Amino acid sequence: MTTxxxxxxxxxxxxxxxxxxxxxxxxxxxxxxxRQFNWSGYTWKVRLAARxxxxxxxxxxxKDNVRVRSDGSLRFGITTGxxxxxxxxxxxxxxxxxxxxxxxxxxxxxxxxxFALFVRDMxxxxxxxxxxxxxxxxxSDPTTQPGWFVSWSKRGRDYSSFPMxxxxxxxxxxxxxxxxxxxxMRDAAGTVLIDRSVRAHSxxxxxxxxxxxxxxxxxxxxxxxxxxxxxxxxxxxx
Length: 238
Known about the structure:
Layout: H1 3-24, E1 33-39, E2 42-47, E3 49-52, E4 57-59, E5 66-68, E6 74-76, E7 85-91, E8 98-104, E9 114-121, E10 131-136, E11 147-153, E12 156-162, E13 170-177, E14 179-186, E15 192-200, E16 207-214, E17 228-236
Parallel strand pairs: 4-7
Antiparallel strand pairs: 1-2, 2-7, 3-4, 5-6, 6-17, 7-16, 8-13, 8-17, 9-10, 9-16, 10-11, 11-12, 13-14, 14-15
């Protein structure tokens, strides 16, 4: 690996660390919700806030931010106006240990912002002690791999990037079991993009699925990011 590549990796890792540490400092209890909707067999609530992390974003709950389309898929959008608004939704029912599976129908090989699928353990006070994520972002560096897994625990943070293809739909899974989490993802051709297990401890009682689509702090505001379409979500108790 060249010195220049090493330097780029250090810069990206520093940015990731700063964003994730700030995100983890946001207590889950401080979040606010007003709107709810049903999708894929579950009820979801939509985050609403003026300025909160990650990324010091404004979070919107309009149907332009998130809505169920006529074909049953879910559309996520970052909206403009006087204030740009990102979007995050959370399941309203704790699902516990098991396999959290999403099917994403949008090309994620070159994301301009951050799209995240994750499971949060609400038994702990912050994301930095109990959250498992698969995220898609180049973190403002076009040379960075677009896929990332992030595992938060009491021991610290474990994360790494992985390559992507442009062959949607993708099947994304976070399989949280007693003592460990398995991250997996494959594209429409069956190519395995990530297959990784890490240690993660939880009571397993208060695990909730979540999704977000958010702006990086210094990203350009001259073009609206393309929407992200999620075809389905499924939870398997195994």
